[in-house]
Design brief:
Layout: H1 3-11, H2 19-29, E1 34-37, H3 44-52, E2 64-67, H4 71-85, E3 92-95, H5 101-111, E4 115-118, H6 120-128, E5 139-142, H7 145-148, H8 151-162, E6 169-174, H9 184-188, E7 193-196, E8 207-213, H10 217-228, E9 235-239, H11 242-254, E10 259-262, H12 268-279, E11 285-289, H13 290-293, E12 303-306, H14 313-320, E13 330-336, H15 338-347, E14 355-361, E15 364-367, H16 368-380, H17 392-439
Parallel strand pairs: 1-6, 1-7, 2-4, 2-5, 3-4, 5-6, 8-13, 8-14, 9-11, 9-12, 10-11, 12-13
Antiparallel strand pairs: 14-15
Helix pairs in contact: 2-3, 3-4, 6-8, 10-11
Length: about 450
């Protein structure tokens, strides 16, 4: 590791390299292309930051390009890399969708960064418009590679890679091993070494995986409201449907629950503001989708809630990886009915996750059996306690107040009777006058 990095490493409070950081350090420093696979929260961003930044030459054009699947993750990676890049006199800029294109281009041309972190769509657009020159690129990192090399995004990543020099070093990082990784070497025309440390990594803390019964969307929204009132609760809430996300957000807002949404057509500034508020504990529930929350690092996140259950084991792994990071304890809450839970257990049969029924009792989430016992004990207790005897002084004050109120009521009734009599007298007088006029 670079000497300046070692000093900052110690000053920042790091004790030792994680399994993935140690595993890829030598090959990346030597210029080899690698595929690094490690659990979420194991320090993959620093795993490629530390060995690659020292190989970048200041003021020599764009040399390191990092691709991220979302704006949030791109901004997060930019922040991390910038902290270490400034030690070497290097500039880092993010180029993502959702931000003003013209301002991004103007800033890029003015600052001339050596490192760019971007989303594939925006990078390809800038290449098509000839606003990026890839001829000087020496290293290309594809983060969250199982996501970026799936479906339509794979073609975009391949198009970007083709614009780089033939000897560009490639680095892919992921928390899960997708089938696409078996063809990586053929796909990109060079040998790519696989470094899988999932079995050796022990950076994750103890995470409990709970099953909480909530059958309908309305019941699930009500359960979120109840969970938000439990002690020190704060969670990232996952949805598969944008429509359901917005429905739930509306319900929570109406109920006065501290919540916000992340994703959709939000501007980059709005997303940054939401993430900042959530990290500062100003928001209890952050409602999001798999795409928007992929790879996000939220320190000491207490819980993850699967409002809609994931459809694949890989999605479950990525979702639950947001909690229990860096040795911290975590909690995963899966909402659904018995049928949903059977499907989820079948989906996760080959994993080591232990799914336990849970319920809320006394504003605390606990094992379902324990919650049932607590609720049964509470129901057995007397519902009403005998009223305490009133103090003599309190009784006298109450009697005096009652006399004053009675006197005031009598006064009002007397005035009402008087007004009624006056109105009756006027009416009779008017009737007599009308009768007299009619006789004439």
């Amino acid at each position: 590791m670079e000497a300046k990095f070692e000093q900052h490493f110690q000053a920042a409070g790091f004790a030792a390299l994680t399994a993935i950081q140690s595993g890829v350090m030598a090959p990346l420093s030597a210029g080899d292309s690698v595929l690094g696979i490690a659990p979420t929260g194991s320090g993959k961003t620093l795993a490629f930051t530390w060995p690659l930044l020292p190989r970048v030459t200041p003021n020599a054009g764009l040399q390191l390009l990092v691709l991220e699947p979302s704006q949030e993750l791109a901004m997060q990676t930019t922040k991390v890399m910038r902290e270490w890049a400034q030690l070497l006199g290097l500039k880092v800029q993010s180029l993502t969708g959702g931000a003003n294109l013209k301002r991004q281009v103007e800033r890029y041309k003015k600052t001339k960064p050596e490192v760019v972190v971007g989303t594939p769509g925006r990078i390809l657009h800038l290449l098509d418009e000839r606003n990026l020159n890839m001829s000087t690129v020496k290293m290309l990192v594809v983060d969250e590679a199982d996501d970026l090399l799936a479906d339509d995004t794979q073609a975009v990543v391949e198009d970007i890679e083709r614009t780089t020099p033939l000897d560009t070093q490639l680095a892919f990082f992921s928390a899960t091993k997708g089938k696409v990784f078996d063809q990586l070497s053929d796909m990109f025309g060079r040998h790519i070494e696989t470094i899988d440390v999932r079995a050796q990594d022990h950076s994750q803390g103890e995470v409990k995986h709970g099953l909480v019964v909530a059958r309908t969307m309305s019941q699930k929204a009500a359960m979120l409201e109840r969970l938000s009132k439990t002690k020190n609760f704060r969670a990232l809430v996952f949805f598969t449907s944008i429509k359901t996300l917005h429905y739930t957000a509306s319900r929570l807002k109406h109920a006065g629950v501290s919540s916000a949404t992340l994703g959709g057509k939000q501007r980059q500034t709005e997303r940054e503001a939401v993430m900042r508020s959530f990290r500062k504990h100003q928001i209890k529930l952050l409602l999001t989708t798999d795409v928007a929350a992929r790879g996000l690092d939220i320190p000491k996140l207490p819980a993850v809630v699967n409002f809609e259950l994931p459809t694949t084991a890989n999605l479950y792994i990525h979702r639950v990886g947001r909690t229990g990071r860096q040795g911290e304890p975590g909690l995963v809450i899966n909402l659904g009915d018995d049928h949903d839970f059977r499907d989820l257990k079948r989906l996760l049969a080959k994993t080591e996750y232990d799914l336990v029924p849970m319920a809320i009792a006394e504003r605390e989430l606990m094992d379902a059996a324990a919650a049932k016992a607590v609720n049964a004990k509470r129901q057995a207790e007397p519902t009403t306690a005998p009223a305490p005897a009133a103090a003599p002084e309190a009784g006298r004050v109450k009697t005096a107040a009652k006399r004053v109120l009675t006197k005031a009521k009598k006064k009002v009734r007397k005035k009402q009777r008087k007004n009624k009599g006056i109105r009756l007298k006027h009416r009779r007088k008017a009737e007599a006058a009308a009768k007299k006029t009619a006789t004439k």
